[in-house]
C-alpha cells in the first residue's frame, strides 16, 4: 500500500500537527439575557445553565467571562409586557433599563466588545420584528425608521456592534446611514444575513417571552429550503455596508455557512441558536450523550464549515473546560 492515511493519525502529537481547524475562545460571542431590576437570576427553563440576569449580576458574569478570555457579548433585553406596544417605543427611550444597562456595562468594561440586537420583537406587543398593520402585514419601509432610531439609541450607549436581526429589506443601508449621520461611523454592523424561519429559536422566545402573538415570521425570515437565496441577501448586505455576515441557525445550515464563506471576503459569523443548545443540553442531562464532547464537536463543525465567529450559549462552558 502506497497510501496509508492512518499514518497521520498514529499519535496525539501527529494528530495535532495535521489538525486543520481549531475552535478558540477568541471566536466566541456570548449571548446574555438582561432582566430589569436588581439581584435576580432566573434560569431559562428550556436552556438549563443559561440565566436571565439583572444588571448587577450581569456585570459580575461579564467580569468572570472576561477573566476566562471571552471578550464579546451580545446583550438581549427581557421586556415586561407592560412596556410593550405596537411601535416598540421603549427601544428608543434612553432611560429604559436596557439602554442604561448598556451604558453601565461599557463604562465598567470598555475593553469588552458589546453587541446589541436591532429588531422590534422584544419590545413589540405583536411579537414581530417589524411593524404590523391591521391586516397582519409586516410593513417593511415603516419599520426601517424604527430600526434606524433603535440603532442610534443603542450606539449612543457606547456599544461596539449593532446586530440587525429583523430581516427587513434595506435595513443595513438604512442603519448605516442613520449611524453615520449621528457621528457613529465607528460602530460596526453584523448583519443577520441569512436568517431562516426556524423552529430552533423556540427557547430564545421563551427566554424573552417574545413569540409572535399571531402568524409566523415567514414573510421576512428565509425559507429553510433555500440555499442560493442566501447569496442575494449576502450581496445586498455587503453593498449596504455590513462589516460581518451572519448565518442563523448554524447546525442545520452548515452548507450555507460554507457557501457564504466561499462567496464573500467579509468575516463570517454563525449563530449557534437556543434550540441547538437546548438539544445538546437535554441529551446530556438525560445521559444520552457526553455533553462536553458533543458540544466541542458541534462548535468545531461550525468552524470547519467556515465560520470565523460563533455566537454560542456554550461559550462559558467551553472556556471553563479550556482554562
Ligand atoms: C430577534 C432574535 C431572535 C433570535 C435572535 N434575535 C428570535 C427570532 O427571530 O424569533 C434567536 C436567537 C436564538 O434562538 O438563540 N429578532
Q: Quick one: CATH superfamily?
A: Aldolase class I
Could you please say which CATH topology applies here? TIM Barrel
CATH architecture: Alpha-Beta Barrel
How many domains? The number is 1
The tally of helices reads 11
Oligomer: single chain
What form results from the Cα inertia axes? Answer: globular
Specify the structural class.
alpha/beta
- Please state roughly what percent of the residues sit in beta strands, choosing from under 5%, 5-15%, 15-25%, 25-35%, 35-45% or over 45%: 15-25%
Uncertain segments are none
Sketch the major β-sheet.
8 strands, parallel, barrel
What is the gyration radius calculated from CA atoms?
20 Å
- CATH class type: Alpha Beta
Q: Distance between termini?
A: 42 Å
Strands across the major sheet, in which order?
Answer: 1-4-5-8-9-10-11-12
- Number of beta-strand segments: 12
DSSP helix fraction = 25-40%
Task: Average the pLDDT over all residues and give the rounded result.
Answer: 97
Order of helices and strands: HEEEHEHEEEHEHEHHEHEHHEH
Compact overview of the structure:
The chain is an alpha/beta fold and 323 residues long. The chain has eleven helices and twelve strands. Helix 3 links the parallel strand 4 (72-77) and strand 5.
How do the helices and strands line up, and which of them pair or pack?
Elements: H1 12-17, E1 28-35, E2 41-44, E3 47-54, H2 55-68, E4 72-77, H3 97-108, E5 113-118, E6 131-132, E7 138-139, H4 140-155, E8 161-164, H5 171-181, E9 188-195, H6 202-208, H7 229-239, E10 244-248, H8 254-263, E11 268-272, H9 274-285, H10 291-305, E12 309-312, H11 315-321
Parallel strand pairs: 1-3, 1-4, 1-12, 4-5, 5-8, 8-9, 9-10, 10-11, 11-12
Antiparallel strand pairs: 2-3, 6-7
The structure holds ligand PBG.
Amino acid at each position: 500500500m502506497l497510501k496509508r492515511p492512518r499514518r497521520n493519525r498514529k499519535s496525539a502529537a501527529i494528530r495535532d500537527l495535521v489538525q486543520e481547524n481549531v475552535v478558540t475562545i477568541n471566536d466566541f460571542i456570548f449571548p446574555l439575557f438582561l432582566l430589569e431590576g436588581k439581584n435576580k437570576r432566573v434560569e431559562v427553563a428550556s436552556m438549563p445553565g443559561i440565566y436571565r440576569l439583572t444588571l448587577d449580576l450581569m456585570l459580575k458574569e461579564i467580569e468572570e467571562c472576561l477573566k476566562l478570555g471571552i471578550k464579546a457579548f451580545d446583550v438581549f433585553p427581557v421586556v415586561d409586557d407592560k412596556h410593550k406596544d405596537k411601535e416598540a417605543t421603549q427601544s428608543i427611550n434612553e432611560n429604559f433599563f436596557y439602554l442604561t444597562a448598556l451604558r453601565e456595562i461599557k463604562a465598567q468594561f470598555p475593553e469588552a466588545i458589546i453587541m446589541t440586537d436591532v429588531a422590534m420583537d422584544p419590545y413589540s406587543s405583536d411579537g414581530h420584528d417589524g411593524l404590523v398593520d391591521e391586516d397582519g402585514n409586516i410593513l417593511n419601509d415603516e419599520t426601517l425608521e424604527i430600526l434606524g432610531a433603535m440603532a442610534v439609541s443603542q450606539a449612543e450607549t457606547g456599544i461596539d456592534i449593532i446586530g440587525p436581526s429583523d430581516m427587513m429589506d434595506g435595513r443595513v443601508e438604512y442603519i448605516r446611514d442613520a449611524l453615520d449621520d449621528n457621528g457613529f461611523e465607528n460602530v460596526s454592523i453584523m448583519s443577520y444575513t441569512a436568517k431562516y424561519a426556524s423552529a430552533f429559536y423556540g427557547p430564545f422566545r421563551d427566554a424573552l417571552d417574545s413569540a409572535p402573538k399571531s402568524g409566523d415570521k415567514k414573510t421576512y425570515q428565509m425559507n429553510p429550503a433555500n440555499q442560493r437565496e442566501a447569496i442575494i441577501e449576502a450581496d445586498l448586505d455587503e453593498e449596504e455596508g455590513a462589516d460581518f455576515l451572519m448565518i442563523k441557525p448554524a447546525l442545520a445550515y452548515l452548507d450555507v455557512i460554507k457557501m457564504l464563506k466561499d462567496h464573500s471576503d467579509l468575516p463570517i459569523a454563525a449563530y449557534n441558536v437556543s434550540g441547538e443548545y437546548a438539544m445538546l443540553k437535554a441529551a446530556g442531562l438525560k445521559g444520552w450523550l457526553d455533553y462536553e464532547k458533543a458540544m466541542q464537536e458541534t462548535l468545531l463543525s461550525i468552524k470547519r464549515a467556515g465560520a470565523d465567529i460563533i455566537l454560542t450559549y456554550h461559550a462559558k462552558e467551553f472556556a471553563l473546560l479550556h482554562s
